DNA sequence: TGAATTTTATTTGTCGACAAAAAATAGACA
DNA sequence: TGTCTATTTTTTGTCGACAAATAAAATTCA
């Protein structure tokens, strides 16, 4: 939209353009700055970044194979919709992946993994203290992503990141509602999970991860229930 | 390689080229017609299919985001390697996904799902009867993919397909060794799984899927053990 | 001979242009 | 006026070309 980007430094390193566009579009989609269903104009993006359509297209192809955008043949590509009708699939998947990655992290963790996990947890706690809902959402994602990394299984890591991204989009819809007592409970549950991973207590990790997933599932369900009542009131 | 393709009909539908190249490369990679580590030449492919590099590149980007090829910046893209050192990650993942998808299929299955699953099982049984190892590998993949489809969870489906593809590549390495008694056991286990899904017996599905996964894990481990002995003998 | 440096050749990433396909608009006809 | 058809406009998919980056070859120098 802003013309500034056009005049700005056209000096870019060869190959960096795709990543730049990819990262920015991805963030915008996950933050709902680009709403589900909204079309993406290749030419407009090309002008905005001062590059040709080729790298833009490559970024879109990558986003498409991650399911973040959908491309109809010979027609415009648009931001993927959130499937509100089948949230139980998301709930099933996040519950299982929380459990599996936390269990595996308890087995495979190394000292540096715990450091990284603790760093993200500190940022999450800070976001909760600051009542910064957007920061809560993203740091919470990073916390669980770090656990999935520590689990070291590339298959589970891949699906976990995908689920966490969908969750980020989902929670972003309701970021206003995060000013109740729940976030503090999340902080404490995270601490318990870290301790269990450090103690290599696989069974405890399983129980804690399951309870943690149940917690977030219940919260999302409440948010949606509330939302539906509002819809009916109109 | 063959010059015939160059002269062949240059009449293609707009947009079909990418899919054609993608499908062919994908099959070649999964069948090990393209060996892990071998480089992929864009120009050569472009000439072979009589198209420019643009659609070739798009196909390669798609394959890269599925992890089937790896692209180093400013350097050639090559077929991804199989990580033999960390096969336990594969074993963990396939065991869990067999269990989860079979369980969910028992709950979510519809009549048409069973038809599809049975069709693939029939093809698998035929491949076993014909002692056609390559057909066994691909039809076995389709059988489990059909179960994952019937489970109807897009997250689990996605990771299952990825795991099954890796398994196809892994088994393809040892397709010579399939002339022992194991395939017949697989046929019977598949039948038992189908019956359990039809009966909606979730717990039985879990046990059968786990046993089935254990079976294939054991077989792959044996194949690799045998292979290592051969290496040492040289 | 062998290591370091320059030159050449190959390959990739990006660009601008063009044609096919679809959408939007205008026109014809009842 | 409303519906169907023809025309224009917009947007996508593909192409050939070029320059940056890398690899390979040739040359220099110890």
Please explain how this structure is put together.
- The structure is a homodimer of 234-residue chains.
- The first copy, chain A, has 234 residues and is mainly alpha-helical.
- The first copy, chain A, folds into two domains: 4-79, Orthogonal Bundle (Arc Repressor Mutant, subunit A); 84-233, Four Helix Bundle (Hemerythrin (Met), subunit A) (Up-down Bundle), CATH 1.20.120.530.
- In chain A, 72% of the residues lie in helices and 3% in strands.
- Chain A has ten helices and three strands; from the N terminus they run H-H-E-H-H-E-E-H-H-H-H-H-H.
- Chain A has helices at residues 4-7, 16-30, 42-49, 53-65, 87-108, 111-129, 133-151, 154-172, 182-198, 202-233, and strands spanning 39-40, 69-71, 77-79.
- In chain A, strands 1-3-2 form a three-stranded antiparallel sheet.
- In chain A, helix 5 (87-108) packs across helix 8, helix 5 packs parallel to helix 9 and helix 6 (111-129) packs antiparallel against helix 7 (133-151).
- The longest helix of chain A has 32 residues, at 202-233.
- Chain A is globular, with a radius of gyration of 20 Å.
- The model of chain A is unreliable at 1-9 (pLDDT under 50).
- Chain A binds a DNA duplex (30 and 30 nucleotides) through residues 14-15, 17-18, 41-43, 51-55, 57-58, 73-76.
What structural class do helix, strand and pairing data of chain A support?
A: mainly alpha
CATH topology of the largest domain in chain A: Four Helix Bundle (Hemerythrin (Met), subunit A)
Average pLDDT figure of chain A: 90
**What is the number of helices of chain A?**
10
How do the SSEs of chain A run, as a string of H and E? HHEHHEEHHHHHH
C-alpha geometry of chain A: globular
Q: For the terminal residues of chain A, how far apart are their CA atoms?
A: 34 Å
Please tally the β strands of chain A and state the result. 3
Biggest chain contact: A-B, 27 and 27 residues
Percent strand of chain A: under 5%
Can you tell me the CATH class of the largest domain in chain A?
Mainly Alpha
The structural domain count of chain A equals 2
Q: Write out the CATH superfamily name of the largest domain in chain A.
A: GntR ligand-binding domain-like
Q: What is the radius of gyration of chain A computed over CA atoms, rounded to a whole number of angstroms?
A: 20 Å
Oligomer: homodimer
In CATH, the architecture of the largest domain in chain A is Up-down Bundle
Q: Low-confidence spans of chain A: pLDDT under 50, at least 5 residues?
A: 1-9
